Amino acid sequence: ILNVEQSPQSLHVQEGDSTNFTCSFPSSNFYALHWYRWETAKSPEALFVMTLNGDEKKKGRISATLNTKEGYSYLYIKGSQPEDSATYLCAHYNTDKLIFGTGTRLQVFP
Amino acid sequence: GAVVSQHPSWVICKSGTSVKIECRSLDFQATTMFWYRQFPKQSLMLMATSNEGSKATYEQGVEKDKFLINHASLTLSTLTVTSAHPEDSSFYICSAAAGQRSYNEQFFGPGTRLTVL
Questions:
Q1: Which of A2, A14, A17, B25 has the most CB atoms within 10 Å of its CB?
Q2: What is the band of B31 on the pLDDT scale with cuts at 50, 70, 90?
């Protein structure tokens, strides 16, 4: 199994701060990278599916970039709000299945 | 977005009993459903992939006779943990995709916490 690493493991920020975290994955035979947002006691919610090197996707205050050659993706949150508190998971599509990282747990304090 | 429900949300059972977990896609037809397991402080790990009307494909190390998967319709898949033991205690979560391949967007249920005494 080829690992997906996410950092940091957890993050505490103040409301209004912008933040970002990293997902690294094997760069060979890349096909797709998924980002999910997972609030406690709820279903993981799909944020982005990224396939092209240099891709940049945006959904409101959240955006993501993708570098398939070096094997990393960044997720950015602009002006964090308490409702952004969640675990953010990335998953790399490899050999016909998604390989997940352990997630970055974000806590935004008012 | 698409909604996937999972039932029950938690279950406690005695060692040796069987437990069935249901996964339903509520507003779309799921060609493929996936079952994952998550142990504490670990990542979601795929257990098996099931396509409607055919046998599930199990990941290496997952016993197919222990974890029975049935995907009888395009909206329902079930996972039965047979003769559960304490080491089966885990968080089980399903996802559904409208496409055939797992690189398609997957829609997750809220998960089931299984505790085996």
A1: B25
A2: confident
